[in-house]
Design goal:
- This protein is mostly beta strands.
- The chain is built from three helices and eleven strands.
- The strands form three sheets. Strands 3-4-5-11-6-9 form a six-stranded antiparallel sheet, with no helix packed on it. A three-stranded antiparallel sheet has the order 8-7-10, with no helix packed on it.
- The radius of gyration is 18 Å and the shape is globular.
């Protein structure tokens, strides 16, 4: 059975009473360079504080983005297939192309110090929750094996997710726009 995310969005009617604005499946995006990987885009914001309006268009329609807008957030649930030989054997150019398809070619660090073809760094703080399955978080130094219920607070670090389990993994992510401290920004060439 295909995994689906039901998304219930609330809002206000003309008199200010709380109502359900929509009740439907969250938009789903895939990446042709990562067969089987699907992202259910639940919601995103583009400002802080977040403006709360009566009439707001659905913010997650359109092209998938790897990271949130400036001062924004992004909430998604991803299905991560078992890692294939195609992923393990990616060239740096293929890895950048895979990230380009997610709107973040510059995030890829494969061939520039990354230990895994899907290594990347974003200027974000990410809350990542393993909902189902087992996955490895790969960092510059070492890795951590995670299972359902484990939570990672990823703070702008160079990382990759590697599913070596042979089964689909489901992850929940909340990504929050961040800003590197000037000293870190200098180290990462992001001045």
């Amino acid at each position: 059975m295909e995994f689906r995310v039901r998304r219930v969005v609330t809002g206000h009617d003309k008199s200010g009473k709380a109502i359900v604005v929509s009740d439907s499946q969250a938009p789903v995006h895939g990446n042709p360079l990562r067969p089987g990987q699907r992202s259910h885009e639940v919601w995103k914001t583009n400002a802080a504080p977040i403006p709360i309006r009566r009439d707001e268009p659905d913010p997650v329609t359109g092209k998938r983005q790897l990271h949130p807008a400036p001062q924004g957030t992004l909430f998604r649930i991803s299905e991560v297939p078992p890692e294939s030989d195609a992923i393990r054997n990616m060239t740096p150019e293929q890895a950048r192309e895979a990230f380009r398809a997610s709107g973040a070619e510059d995030a890829s660090t494969w061939g520039r110090g990354g230990r895994h073809p899907l290594m990347h760094r974003t200027e974000t703080v990410d809350y990542a929750v393993v909902l189902e399955g087992e996955i490895a978080l790969i960092l510059d130094e070492g890795e951590v094996n995670l299972k359902a219920g484990d939570v990672v607070i990823q703070r702008g670090t160079n990382h990759a997710w590697s599913n070596r389990s042979g089964k689909m993994v489901k992850m929940l992510y909340v990504l929050i726009d961040g800003k590197f401290d000037p000293e870190l920004a200098k180290q990462f060439g992001k001045q």
